[in-house]
Amino acid sequence: MIITRRAFAIALSLTGLAALAGFSPLRLIAEAMAQTASDVAKPVSLPDMALGPANAPVTITEYASMTCPHCAAFNENVFPKIKSEYIDSGKVRYVFREFPLDIKAAAGSMLARCIAKDDAPKYFAVIDLLFKQQGEWVMKNTAETLTRIGKQAGLTQQQVEDCLKDQALLDKIAADQKFAAEVLKVNSTPTFFINGERLKGAMSFEELDEKIKSLLKNQ
């Protein structure tokens, strides 16, 4: 993981982010079946950001990295269909969990948490914006673009900087990532759990649609 000091000199504390850099899910090679649905269901350090009713018959949990292009493509092409077809109708509860593959991804996740606080719809709106502008803030002008997005959402320059240097928040994201890697055997993004069953890699709407319908049929 090679991150230059220059890219984060304005808004990020490299000392704080180094805690995350020491843990790389890419080093994990062990494969295992998904753990129980209850293992997937419980948030560890940070409260879950979710859309859809808690008692929905199907729960989809996505682990994603904000710098992952496959995650961005899924967010653009598949998630809106899942939302309109199943989340908005109350059939699916959709949980989004951070699994940053690099320091920039961690920064994006931290900003989304700071902007949204406990407002899940707002959180999903922020990650949607981050995914859509991924090419801009990941490849260049990282600090400047994240600061602009934060300001557009109502944060001040100082609040953005404080957010991206929040060691406690970073520690919680890292702890949740560690749990996902060690207990749930997540080692790439996106990874999905559908009622506890692990499915790796970007999925098409058709694949998810078939899986959801089969689960709803068994209710």
Question: What distinguishing features does this structure have?
Answer:
globular, alpha+beta, disordered N terminus, 53% helix, 5-stranded mixed beta sheet, 219 residues
How would you describe this protein?
With 219 residues, the chain is an alpha+beta fold. Helices cover 53% and strands 11% of the residues. It contains twelve helices and five strands. Strands 1-3-2-4-5 form a five-stranded mixed beta sheet, sandwiched between helices. A hairpin with a 2-residue loop joins β4 (191-194) and β5 (197-200). The longest helix is centred in the last third of the chain and has 16 residues, at 167-182. The chain is globular. The chain starts with a helix and ends with a helix. Residues 1-34 have low confidence and may be disordered.
Q: What low-confidence regions span 5 or more consecutive residues with pLDDT below 50?
A: 1-34
Biggest sheet details: 5 strands, mixed
Morphology: globular
Output the radius of gyration.
Answer: 17 Å
Distance between the termini: 44 Å
- Helix and strand sequence: HHHEEHHEHHHHHHEEH
* Residue share in helix: 40-55%
What amount of the residues lies in strands? 5-15%
